[in-house]
Amino acid sequence: MPSTRDIRRRIKSVKNTAQITKAMQMVAASKMRRAQQAALAGRPYATMMNGVLAEVTHHAGDFTHPLMEEREIKKRCVILVSSDKGLCGALNSNLLREAARFDKATTLFITAGRKAAQFVARTRRHLAAEFTYKDAPLFSEARAICKFARELFVRGEVDVVEVLYTNFVSTLNQKPEVIQLLPVGEIKGFTIGVHGEERAQKLERGATEFLFEPSAGQVLGALLPHYLNFQIYQVLLEAKASEHSARMVAMKNATDNAHQLIRDLTLQYNKMRQASITNELLEISSAAMALS
């Protein structure tokens, strides 16, 4: 049974831990606001670009492009976007559980984030390239990732490129999602999740007559690389917003648990102290009675 000194030491240790988790919670909350604003700010542009691409695709006719070539899927490339650090709850666990479902023999990985690279190395899967990205993702970082994936697809080394990332829905809700990057098929509406509500933009093709110069096909060919680059950039923004949100919630839960543990230990300490005082009083009373 622990002594009162042991309980006091444990209370002090838990208080120090609570101070650390509280500080991490405040830092994560500050980063979370900026990351969420960046992710939400990019969604209208992504939605508008999807609308433009859908309209151009509708008028492009029989236009073909190497990035739109559909082939039998023999080899798959997955761009796995994770965080660099832990202490963010089940965020990475849920993401890597989805990544483990891909066939090891026919899948190669492009990783963005240290946790993703560690998972690929630990499970001995094929790692094609490893990239890093900052707390405030840069478009140049997304362009480098997308360029490498495009080159693999165009050279015929892979037949499909997919992106596995954590989509930001709300501060309390982040879910792993897989989207197909290549080949570029039908342009779909960008899924928007704000405060737990999700809605998909409906794209009306051919509702208005447009004139494209020099031609719809050439416009589409010029827009496709930028479209793919921005898709990856938005994915990085969503992943960062999810990471900081999950870390803030995890650190808040850890701080609350530490405070509850301190209350329980304090109660236990007071009970033991009270019992010790009672025993001493009994001993004094017994000694007095014996002397009298």
Give an account of the 3D structure.
- With 292 residues, the protein is of the alpha/beta class.
- The chain has 2 domains: 4-23 and 248-286, Helix Hairpins (Orthogonal Bundle), CATH 1.10.287; 30-247, ATP synthase, F1 complex, gamma subunit (Pyruvate Kinase, Chain: A, domain 1), CATH 3.40.1380.
- The protein has helices spanning 4-59, 91-99, 114-122, 139-154, 216-291; strands at residues 76-81, 107-112, 126-131, 160-170, 173-182, 191-194, 197-200.
- The strands form 2 sheets. It has a 5-stranded mixed sheet with strand order 3-2-1-4-5, with helices on both faces. It has a two-stranded antiparallel ribbon with strand order 6-7.
- Strand 2, helix 3 and strand 3 (126-131) form a beta-alpha-beta unit.
- Helix 1 packs antiparallel against helix 5 (216-291) and helix 4 (139-154) crosses helix 5 (216-291).
- The chain is elongated.
- Residues 189-203 have low confidence and may be disordered.
Write the layout of secondary structure elements.
Layout: H1 4-59, E1 76-81, H2 91-99, E2 107-112, H3 114-122, E3 126-131, H4 139-154, E4 160-170, E5 173-182, E6 191-194, E7 197-200, H5 216-291
Parallel strand pairs: 1-2, 1-4, 2-3
Antiparallel strand pairs: 4-5, 6-7
In short:
With 292 residues, this protein is of the alpha/beta class. The chain is 57% helix and 16% strand. Strand 4 (160-170) and strand 5 (173-182) form a beta hairpin.
